[in-house]
Amino acid sequence: MALVIADRVKETSVTTGTGTVTLGGAVDGFQSFAAIGDGNECYYTIVGTAVDTEWEIGIGVYTASGTTLSRNTVLQSSNADSLVSFSAGNKEVFVTYPADKAVLLNSDDNVVLPGNLTVLGDITNITGSFAWDSGTSTPNAVGGRKQIITSIHDRIRGCVVNVDGTVNYYLNPNDWTQKADGTSSDLTGTDGDVMVEIPKFYFRNIYATTTATRQISAVTQSGFVIHPAFIKDTQEVDYRYMGAYDACVYDVSASAYISGLNYDNNDGGSGVGVNVTPVTGDKLASVKGVYPMVGLTRAEFRTLSANKGAGWRQLDYDLWSAIQLLFVVEHQSFYSQDILGAGNTNGSYISSSGNQTDSPHTISGAGDSIANGSTNTTSGAGVNAKPGTSFMKYRGIENFYGNCWNWADGINVNVTVTGNVHITNNAAFFADNTATGMALVTSSFPTATGFIRDLLPVDGYFLSSSNSGASSSTYITDQHLASTGSNRVVVVGRNANSGANAGAFSLASAYVSSDAGLGFGGRLAF
């Protein structure tokens, strides 16, 4: 027996007294109680049309044989909330939703229940938090490491995205060879770019002496603000999309997806490498079965992503920070390699060459068997191989760290003043060596390289405040590669030979805008 509510259910009856009602057929324009289903409960109202002072609201059971409705529980009635002894004459019997049983959002957008809540299935948290005490060396949360999965995490999913930024189809959460509907997927670019959809969420930080608590919520709440990743180009968006793989390039002249092989420089004007030419329309891509594009500057990756059309960009620092926050709330620790595995960080590089087999990078799609899932220290273990075979994955995002560095756009360091960090999520102001259109978020960014000891109280971001006194297994566990030089750009996640320096919170602000190399790649975003 189930409690069923259905729309536009109304029948007549001539039943008298306090007993079971015999239904006389649907009123014109309405459906019968058959919509409730034989043996199911419903909320009902009976109103006398011949004697309009008689009425009753209650809970009853519909029986198909004889087309009757029992009157098991009276909620309200014209007889002091007891069974009404209905007089002779016509009556209308219809399905209702009683006010004292209704669950509604109040004026504060909160749900207030009039009684106890009984849940028959699993409860998914809409909020989660991570409290960390920088006064201790442990990378784990106050209270220890555990897993907290919110409804935000549950809604992260792999998909294939059209060139206009719409989702072509979602992928089977357990098997990316299939679409969500069970038919075969094509992740090689024919159907679009393979991306991971990140739902909008809200956050707040609470600071108390040495403890910082980072909270997330799937819904608006007092004190929470929307994460900056979801204010894209000045507009609030419900979803962001991050490339599922390290990016390759679609070569328009060859009509083919290409990697950067093992070249230090793939700029089309250099006369060496694979000669990527952003100015002629080559495009950044996120597809299966291609090694990463490397050997390009951040600005070149920026142009390649913009060539795809409106809304496309390379990975922005705000989106990277949102994923970091989701990770640390879920796993209650900064120690990503101890949770997701080393990934492809234990390899080695040799001199620039045109041979893919000289590169330690792993081909995209190596982790597709894990689908929307994440690796662990076994499935994400790292080995030294050329070409690479190792990978790690966080909720569908392959090589969130390791394999190759990813340029992060919308963040510039040491512009105008050493220690300054400027950030924007407006692609109109994505540029190097400038602070124009960007917000100054701190003037205290470290300039000496080291493992991250503590974080700045900058809401929404995980920026180091100290790179001294930590290690690969204490405090934040990842390294910040820093510089005192002016006009620095940012790469995140580390590359294939970074070892224990790599992780979900690793960042380098030591490079200039003209830098490129065989370990420097990018990632597509929308």
Describe what you observe in this structure.
This protein has 526 residues and is mainly beta. It folds into two domains: 10-101; 105-526, no CATH class. It contains four helices and 35 strands. Strands 25, 26, 27, 28, 31, 32, 33 and 34 form an eight-stranded mixed β-sheet that branches. The protein is elongated, with a radius of gyration of 30 Å.
Spans of at least 5 consecutive residues whose pLDDT stays below 50 are none
Strand coverage percent: 25-35%
* Approximate helicity band: under 10%
Largest sheet entry: 8 strands, mixed
Which oligomeric form is depicted? single chain
Structural class, judged by helices and strands?
A: mainly beta
Tally the helices: what do you get? Answer: 4
Number of strands: 35
Distance between the termini: 47 Å
Domain count: the total is 2
Question: What is the mean predicted local confidence, pLDDT?
Answer: 95
Shape: elongated
What is the gyration radius calculated from CA atoms?
30 Å
Notable features of this structure?
35 strands; mainly beta; 526 residues; 6% helix; 4 helices; 28% strand
Structure described in brief:
This protein is mainly beta and 526 residues long.
What layout of secondary structure does this protein have?
Elements: E1 10-13, E2 21-22, E3 41-48, E4 55-63, E5 68-69, E6 73-77, E7 91-95, E8 127-133, H1 151-154, E9 157-161, E10 167-172, E11 175-179, E12 193-199, E13 202-208, E14 211-217, E15 225-226, E16 231-232, E17 235-236, E18 239-243, E19 248-251, E20 256-258, E21 283-285, H2 298-306, E22 313-314, H3 317-331, H4 337-340, E23 393-394, E24 397-398, E25 405-413, E26 421-423, E27 439-442, E28 450-451, E29 454-455, E30 464-466, E31 479-481, E32 488-492, E33 507-511, E34 520-521, E35 524-525
Parallel strand pairs: 25-34, 31-33
Antiparallel strand pairs: 1-7, 2-5, 3-4, 3-7, 4-5, 4-6, 8-14, 9-10, 9-12, 10-11, 12-18, 13-14, 13-15, 16-17, 19-20, 19-21, 22-35, 23-24, 25-26, 25-32, 26-27, 28-31, 29-30, 32-33
